[in-house]
Specification:
By secondary structure, this protein is an alpha+beta fold. 50% of the residues lie in helices and 13% in strands.
Length: 141
Amino acid sequence: MEKRFSLAQLDLLKEIGTIGAGRAATALSELLSKRVEITVPLVNFVPLENIANLLKERERLFFVIDMEMEGDLTGRMFLLFPPDDAKNLSGALLGQPGEQINLQDEMLQSSLKETANILCGSYVAALADMTKLNILISAPT
């Protein structure tokens, strides 16, 4: 059964998302020692089985990191990086030019998973603070 949300509920979720994304951007900025800009998040409810189709519509490949939320709020968080962005971010973290990074490299994968842990942790902390819910996140995969 599909749930419908009111415009007010969607606006509230967008506001929570904006605050969470702001905290995540601040964490990334501190990690990179560089300015990070964000855009207003889009709020959309998509059945898990339809996510692959949604991404196919963009006709791009992504490096995907998956984390589960547990506790008072359950769900999944996906952090997606286009390959060039994944290489550039990993390169910045590792002190190497992004074009020298191989997508299969364990260091790239490890650095992106740790970045996802920091970003999603910051996002979930903002969500938990605002809602007073107990929310835990899994290790990134």
